[in-house]
Amino acid sequence: MPRRFPLQPLLDLANERADAATQRLALLKQRWQMQEEKLKQLFNFQAEYRQRLSDTLQHGVEMAKVHDFRAFLQKLELAIQQQQLEIQKAKFNWEEGQHAWTEERRKLKTFEILRQRHERGETHRENRLEQRDQDEYARNIFNRKRGEEDSSDK
Hints:
By secondary structure, the chain is mainly alpha-helical. The chain has a domain at about 10-110: Helix Hairpins, CATH 1.10.287. It is built from two helices and no strands. The chain has helices at about 10-60, 65-154. Helix 1 (about 10-60) runs antiparallel to helix 2.
């Protein structure tokens, strides 16, 4: 009977950690994409608001209203810059997560290779034991037949 792989608990742990790293990486990618989507929305809102300002200026408007439009556009520009920083952070976190995922996968593969070697060794050991048993069985049959022939010769 094959012996149990002695590092199985470590293999199981490596498997769990690789799965967790995979899930974390997917979550980080999703967050990064959400940040990029927010930036797109800000750019769209900025373009729409600039168009409103342009339309308003063509019809004539009070200076205070123009000032309000420009102040709001400046706030939008600041929000866009902040969002770009958030995207950089999200991308950095994703890259760090990817490194962690790669490391966990490397560890898992190492334990899987060790398990495969163990299984091959166990198969080889089982085959040797089986061959030894077959050889012993054949030797016993041979000795019994030889014993029967010796006793029939007397």
